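Q: Give me a backbone?
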Amino acid sequence: MDLVQQLEVLTTEAVNPRTADIDLLDARQIVELLNAEDAGVATAVQAVLEPVAIAATMLAQTIMDGKRMVYVGAGTSGRLGILDASEIPPTYGADPGLITGIIAGGYQAILKAVEGAEDDRMEGGFAVSALRESDERDVGMIVGMSASGRTPFVLGALEYGARNGMFTVLVSTNNPDWLRAQAPFVNLLICPQVGPEPIAGSTRMKSGTAQKMIVNMITTSAMVMLGKTYGNVMIDLKPTNQKLQARMIRIVSMLGNCSVHEAQTLLEAASWNTKTAIVAAYCRCTVAEAEVKLRRENGRVRSVVTHFNEET
């Protein structure tokens, strides 16, 4: 099957009959039509929550095993992976190399399309291999991002990962049966069926929205399972700007049942480690004692608080 024939069977290339007359509409009608199309994306994602949960569990396990996860994509898909990876360190205090992203065409492709970069299947494998050599922690999981599911660069990376014992995931908005035939080496398919795009082939639209929702759920769920939140509050963020410093003070004050002034004092004493400051405030102990309590509970504030309440 040549490429033209292959594209004919892909939902991502199909013409959407609901938007066939979009060029006859005014601005208000266009945005209403686009909004109506977007309304179905969450329902499509809801239908694939089981594989998303599996991916989140595998990411948490990968991190506990001392390994890293990498997103691999091209174009919009690649940028979404890099975006998600870049937001994990300030939000959850994770090392910048723990979750990272590779985009076909390299750094310049983040800001400007690099035509043809996605067509090199071998380069996808080479890119992951080079990443492995850049850090002593190995890559344990690859999440391939490709709306079509056929991007050679992405499939090359996933195939390389499969050969080297990594857990591989492919996120696509095309038919999973067709994708399984194209990529039998992939461990897990996540394929929300969002239907044809409002503008035929423009997968930065519904497909991109679905992919963003999915990567949000994978990394957020993994971070929660790893104890990076207390309830639904971030407790492992880094003070990289004034807004985050103020947020950290508010969090310690709220969760530690102390004044804003005391929260800031504890954070400064704890070198701006939010978890330590929360435990010190809640348990009315020193920063050193809080650090011991956290080590005993593998860094989980919830466990420290539970045991403290049971003992008092």
